[in-house]
Amino acid sequence: MTRYAMVIDTRLCIGCGDCVVACRTENKVPIGLNRDWVVEATSGEYPNLKTEFRSERCNHCSHATCVYQCPTGASHYWRDSNIVLVDPAKCTGCKACIAACPYDARLVMHPEGYVDKCTFCVHRVEKGLDPACVSTCPTRCMHFGLLDDPNSKVSELLRTRQHKVLHPETGNEPNVYYLT
Amino acid sequence: MLDELLITARANPRIDPALDIWGWQISVYLFLGGLTAGIMFFSALMLLLRKDREAPFAVNRLALLGPVALSLGMTALFLDLEVKSHVYRFYMAFRPTSPMSYGAWILLLIYPVAALQVLSNVRVGFPAVASWVDVLTPIRRLTDLAERHRRSIAAAAIPLAVALGIYTGILLSAFAARPFWNIGLLGPLFLVSGLSTGAAIIALLSRERTEMRLFTLIDIGLIVVEIALVGLLLISLATGAKLQLLALRHLFTGGYMVAFWGVFVGIGLLVPLLLDYLEIRGRLHRFALLAPALVLFGGLALRVIVVDLGQETRWTHYDSEYNTLLLERLR
Questions:
Q1: Neighbouring-strand partners of residue A145
Q2: Which pTM does this prediction carry?
Q3: How close B70 comes to chain A (CA, Å)?
Q4: Is the confidence metric ipTM above 0.90 for this complex?
Q5: Residues of A in contact with B11 (CB under 8 A)
Q6: Are A39 and B99 a contacting pair at CB < 8 A?
Q7: Test mutation, B5, B12, B317, chain A, max A CBs within 10 A
Q8: φ and ψ at B289, to 5 degrees?
Q9: Which residues pair with A6 in a beta bridge?
Q10: Residues 6 or more apart from B221 whose CB is under 8 A from it?
Q11: Is pLDDT of B321 > 60?
């Protein structure tokens, strides 16, 4: 499996929400629906508080429970990679994949009814471009690339910086990494 | 302290703040699936045990309700689909990792067996319509064939009924992302509940005193097992990890406390158990139909509670300041 990863530097992210706007524009996401979102997480006890900003989306898991639960094969891996896509032509709108996602990153498209989600902007990745959110980020805190290539920026960052993924204990092996 | 606040909008309809993807359609489907399992199981079992005299309704007539309940359940399931025109896609693929895919194919296997069960009993059970069966030659021949293989059909129906009953629970328990559902006990619980509703429908519809008594006794046994399984389910949640403890808390607060303890455990299990007991002891006859009616009601209540509550349990916990109502007002 070819593994694409997104690496987001929470120390650089200022929570401006440009990634959300870029996604909405690039993918023509209908009003009221969101494929990505930004979280401000504050931890600790006053006065020792720590805040991090996280731009979140589908984690394009290597062990994607949504793909395994889909009864029709509509939810699938793109070209033997970890990029999880939904084929609207095969989707019955049974919503099993939504129940299966521990990140609640999927949504029901309206009015058509098929299930939609972040695609890692696969139509751009095909052309060698970064996803829209990554290429828009004004602080350059987001990176995209191949995990299998040791010389890629994402591999280098994960080799040299402390990082985490969200809810690793689900066993889904998410591929959106956060530098801490 | 960990406070996770959404600073851009995330209010995907039916996803946030809690999942609201499956409504009454799924609860009704799971209930009717269990009921079908109970109907097929008892009509086949009574036939194999040669209980024609003690349980004539179960042996000869009950099977007719199998395809009826199954079809109503499948209709409810169909109504849940967002893209109804793609329903045929379930049968364009078999996905070995997807319980829902297994379910779709199990249902397809169940239909012919349930139909053969009906045909194998139609001349004995419904003499009034038996003449219709003989009008069309292929159906007459199929009926003859089904009658000759009555016991083999019943023998095939039992494992299929058990598979269907367990499947209705596994469908939910296979979701690791929903802590309240992710317990293997849901399979046996839904199976026993389905068998219990099957026994209840016999007690409700049979005209024979001995048969009503037999199935009242069977239902007492099944209700006791169901109570034990509910107890084990609660223990499993109470001894689980943090997310399962949080899920358990729902059963002790607000509307779910009333629904679970009052409606399901009280009205759906304990009251019919008491009424059944009093009836067997010969103390009560006036409410003979109330107990099985409550068992059916309890079976439906269980599915509604489990389907709804499971969707409120999740891994992500965001506090959102985004208020869709406020946004509407600003427009």
A1: A5
A2: 0.94
A3: 18
A4: yes
A5: 32, 34
A6: no
A7: B12
A8: -90, -15
A9: A144, A176
A10: none
A11: no
